[in-house]
Amino acid sequence: MDSRMQAVLNFVEAGSRVADIGADHGYLSIELIKSGRAVKVIATEKNIAPFEALKKNISAAGFENFIEVRLGDGLKIFSAGEVDTICIAGIGGALITKILDDAPEVVQSARQVILQPMNAAKKIREHLAKNDWVIVDEDLAEAGGFIYEIICAEKNSLPKKIFKRESSPLLKKFLTQRREKLQRVLAEMSKSESARASEKFSAMLAEMSVISG
Ligand SMILES: C[S@@+](CC[C@H](N)C(=O)[O-])C[C@H]1O[C@@H](n2cnc3c(N)ncnc32)[C@H](O)[C@@H]1O
């Protein structure tokens, strides 16, 4: 399992019943059981090819009694109260928020949500705050040459005083990469009057000024 998935696993409260949405190969689900971190996992897939691979890998690991596999869309195939922790990793931010929005009772019945969006992390944070989740910690992880953001939110909890992300050895590199990306996009958008007048442009300028400190 790579450090991206390890960072997701590290946030899972010990003894949880975990939903692994878009489990694909099932490495996170398998490690959650192997490490003893989760007591039960429900691993889901929307697409048939990864679903078949998932079933095969879980059976090869001998974890059929601990990892239930379901085929279907996001959290719609859960009942409220079935899981304590929801993990969604390796999926775009817009799709993650849609998956959360599509099953409000399931999400509200969970204690913990751990998200590793492939983009739009800011939108995820806003979405969580709007839905009364407290972001208690965040981390960064590097895998395959990319740095990923991992967000852990809980209900009725207080945020950690110092997020793992703030003391991560990856933070400097992550901010440099982010600044470079914002610079590139802002330069491109500056060429168009309508793009310059957009909310996205203002938001990116604001982020640029924050991370440039
Ligand atoms: C890039 S993989 C990430 C796999 C794994 N979670 C990881 O982090 O390595 C994304 C997976 O999510 C699945 N997926 C996409 N939308 C989904 C949805 N609405 N419900 C369940 N699975 C979904 C895809 O089929 C794909 O296997």
Descriptive notes:
By secondary structure, the chain is α/β, with parallel strands linked by helices. It has 2 domains: 163 residues, Rossmann fold (3-Layer(aba) Sandwich); 41 residues, no CATH class. The chain has 9 helices and 7 strands. The protein has a 7-stranded mixed β-sheet with strand order 3-2-1-4-5-7-6, sandwiched between helices. Helix 3 links the parallel strand 2 and strand 3. The chain is globular and about 55 Å long. The chain starts with a helix and ends with a helix. The model has no long low-confidence stretch (mean pLDDT 96). Bound molecules: S-adenosylmethionine (SAM).
Helix percent band: 40-55%
Spatial strand order of the main sheet:
3-2-1-4-5-7-6
Low-confidence spans: none
CATH class of the largest domain: Alpha Beta
Tell me how many strands there are: 7
Bound molecules: S-adenosylmethionine
Could you give me the name of the CATH homologous superfamily of the largest domain?
Vaccinia Virus protein VP39
Rg estimate, integer Å: 18 Å
Query: At CATH's second level, what is the architecture of the largest domain?
Result: 3-Layer(aba) Sandwich
| Biggest sheet architecture | 7 strands, mixed
